[in-house]
Design the sequence.
């Protein structure tokens, strides 16, 4: 669930789940279940419109608490003030255009909007509405206002909407909203420190085709890159994730660009880096590719001989974007999966690579024996071009992602 080292705090946290009146309100039931089953104390605050979609008995049964949308219930307990004051995290899912407008303008005509005005904890909005409503200048301005005040407004997903419509405006997957909520809660910081920043993350492993069915590849699962993308979204960033052959659901609020080969990864990263404040190259691009790709499947030879495969070097993406920066002041982060050899230890090889690539930070992993690949956990040393070295002990990849972003933020405008 939450990153290593933060679980005791997360289990005792008081979470307010606000639900506004959209068809996606039913999906908030799964979000509520994830928060309660992970040990959180959850208070559901629906709007009157939300109760038209999912009734109060459902929310009460799932949360184990009475549910009301009005400020007049239990007036002696002053719920319109007390709920927000005592919260450690507020998540509004779905957040309709109407709810976002009220929150941006400080309107307080029901229990949920009163709660938003009194909350002094982190607030996460997960919008859901038709594309035209999301793209309307009024909604765009309201979202910008909320983000400027420190709220995390997740970008909605693209997909099937109400009726036959499709487009951007779909509620992100409840698991993804939960992951962002837990990360925000674990950090305990009200103001997202990546708000207003555009970051690019690459993830996964590239494939270099020999023929239509065979390729050269590697063992990268993309888990660390996806953890980095989720963490950045939770810290308020506009995130572009360039994913190479990753079998993971798209992180909430993240623009995903899918690629296969190193050449495609190069083009996508270079294009996105032109407007990026930070680029984190967590992907594992192939160093070499075949000089020729067969149009047909390569057949076995009757005499048992094997075909000769000639390789050429792929472009060094990390070195290129580090030494020829497309945006002044950008922070570039690389990864080094090392095993150590006769020429040096893992850290010695990492320092050599850091100097050769020219990036600002290098995350060095010891992958001896296949460690790290496909595992939810990681450990690393983050080396800085300024001589810094941050040892990150064994823990979740989500926890490592937060430390990496801490290091990136500390280097902005330095």
Sequence:
């Amino acid at each position: 669930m939450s990153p290593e080292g933060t679980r005791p705090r997360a289990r005792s946290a008081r979470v307010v789940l606000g639900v506004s009146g959209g068809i996606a309100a039913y999906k908030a039931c799964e979000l509520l279940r994830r928060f309660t089953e992970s040990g959180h104390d959850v208070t559901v605050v629906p709007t009157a419109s939300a109760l038209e979609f999912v009734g109060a008995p459902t929310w009460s049964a799932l949360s184990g608490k009475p549910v009301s949308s009005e400020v007049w219930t239990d007036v002696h307990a002053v719920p319109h003030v007390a709920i927000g004051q005592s919260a450690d995290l507020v998540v509004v899912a779905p957040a309709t255009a109407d709810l976002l407008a009220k929150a941006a303008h400080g309107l307080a005509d029901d229990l949920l909007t009163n709660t938003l005005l009194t909350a002094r904890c982190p607030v996460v909005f997960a919008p859901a509405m038709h594309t035209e409503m999301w793209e309307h200048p009024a909604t765009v301005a309201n979202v910008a206002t909320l983000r400027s005040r420190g709220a995390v407004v997740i970008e909605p997903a693209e997909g099937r909407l109400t009726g036959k419509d499709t487009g951007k405006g779909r509620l992100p997957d409840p698991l993804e909203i939960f992951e962002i909520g837990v990360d925000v809660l674990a950090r305990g910081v009200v103001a997202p420190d990546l708000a207003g920043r555009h970051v690019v993350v690459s993830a996964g492993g590239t494939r270099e085709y020999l023929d239509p069915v065979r390729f050269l590849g590697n063992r990268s699962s993309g888990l660390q890159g996806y953890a980095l993308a989720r963490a950045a979204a939770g810290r308020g960033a506009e995130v572009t994730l360039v994913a190479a052959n990753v079998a993971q659901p798209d992180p909430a609020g993240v623009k995903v660009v899918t690629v296969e080969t190193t050449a495609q990864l190069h083009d996508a990263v270079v294009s996105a880096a032109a407007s990026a404040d930070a680029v984190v190259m967590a992907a594992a691009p192939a160093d070499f590719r075949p000089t020729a790709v067969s149009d047909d499947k390569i057949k076995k030879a009757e005499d048992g001989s094997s075909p000769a495969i000639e390789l050429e070097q792929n472009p060094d993406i990390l070195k290129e974007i580090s030494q020829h920066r497309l945006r002044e002041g950008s922070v570039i982060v690389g990864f080094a999966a090392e095993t150590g050899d006769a020429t040096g230890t893992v850290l010695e090889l990492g320092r050599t690579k850091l100097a050769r690539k020219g990036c600002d930070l290098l995350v060095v992993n010891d992958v001896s024996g296949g460690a790290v690949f496909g595992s939810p956990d990681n450990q690393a040393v983050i080396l800085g071009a300024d001589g810094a070295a941050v040892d990150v002990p064994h823990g979740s990849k989500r926890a490592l992602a937060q430390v990496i972003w801490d290091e990136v933020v500390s280097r902005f405008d330095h």
